[in-house]
Write a structure and sequence with these properties.
Layout: E1 2-17, E2 21-35, H1 46-58, E3 65-68, E4 75-79, E5 82-87, E6 93-97, E7 102-105, H2 112-125, E8 131-139, E9 147-152, E10 166-176, E11 179-180, H3 182-192, E12 195-199, E13 203-205, E14 214-221, E15 224-231, E16 235-238, H4 244-259, E17 264-268, E18 274-277, E19 283-285
Parallel strand pairs: 1-3, 3-7, 9-12, 12-16
Antiparallel strand pairs: 1-2, 2-8, 4-5, 5-6, 6-15, 9-10, 10-11, 10-17, 13-14, 14-15, 17-18, 18-19
Length: 286
């Protein structure tokens, strides 16, 4: 007998891609669990199994940087902060932080299918009582219209959002006089795609001007010391922390500055959570 549950939870991560570089990702997690019916007529108490599954995923890949160890030009070394990850293609990157901020995987490239299979096997080795096997499926949120991926780190966050290279895949909605603006949404999603959003107060070295300049981000957070170095053109510098509330307000201000148009911005932090800014008071939605 198999019990299934769709949208059990979701994962927000960043990953290193040998073709695109540092990118954010958000995936729904579906689960199937095999087992035998008990005397109560159920496979098991799913109220107990669900938090077990979610805890293992939250303590595993969620809010980490997924690192494909066999990617060309990539290296991993111990360092004072914990681990140092360096990559060369498609551009140079260096990131340092505590070990729990990274998920190291023995592949040349990360895919949601491979990641789901990997964690299905890991979780099935020691399943909860009456569970024989676990199968996971990871898939992106279905988004009609503009969407983009970004990475960031929030040093003041008490949880895992403080990790310097985690990210999201998010939709973007812009309204003018109550009407959606799909062309403007697509243009801004393209500008934000695969970018690292950084607070200017966390920049320790702005690097040299020009296409070869490298921007260095460094901060101390509750989990330890973090550092990230990326090409300047892969970064978007904000005057505030890169929370979703500030991202929405920044987008509204930038669009007004560049176009003179006062729009209502609805920005999302991955799946479900977001904030409004612009023509309405700033409102937070969980």
């Amino acid at each position: 007998m198999t019990l299934f549950v769709n949208n059990l939870t979701h994962l927000d991560t960043s990953l290193w891609c040998p073709r695109r570089g540092l990118i954010g990702a958000s995936w729904h997690v579906d689960a199937e669990l095999d087992g035998q019916l008990g005397d109560d007529g159920m496979l098991f108490d799913f109220g107990e199994v669900k938090p077990w599954l979610k805890t293992h995923l939250d303590d595993g890949p969620d809010h980490t940087l997924l690192v494909p160890l066999e990617s060309p030009g990539l290296s991993v070394q111990d360092c004072r902060e914990g681990l140092c990850i360096r990559a060369q293609a498609p551009y140079a990157m260096e990131v340092r932080g505590p070990r729990q901020a990274f998920t190291l995987l023995p592949w040349s490239e990360i895919t949601p299918q491979r990641l789901a299979e990997h964690y299905s096997n890991l979780l099935s080795r020691r399943p909860p009582p009456r569970v024989d096997a676990i199968r996971l499926r990871l898939h992106e949120e279905a988004i009609e219209g503009a969407a983009f991926t970004y990475s960031h780190g929030l040093k003041r966050h008490a949880g895992n959002c403080q990790r310097i290279a985690h990210g999201h895949r998010s939709r973007l909605c812009l309204w003018e006089n109550g009407s959606r603006q799909p062309m403007l949404e697509a243009a801004w999603a393209e500008r934000l795609q695969d970018r690292y959003l950084v607070s200017e107060e966390d920049i320790s070295d702005p690097g040299l001007p020009g296409p070869r300049g490298q921007l260095t981000v460094r901060y101390q957070a509750g989990q330890g010391q973090f550092m990230l170095r990326l090409p300047r053109d892969r970064c978007i510098v904000m005057p505030t922390p890169t929370t979703i509330e500030h991202i929405a307000a920044w987008l509204a201000a930038r669009i007004l500055h560049e176009t003179g148009r006062e729009l209502r911005v609805q920005a999302f932090e991955g799946i479900g959570k977001g904030a409004y800014s612009g023509m309405s008071p700033l409102t937070h939605h969980d």
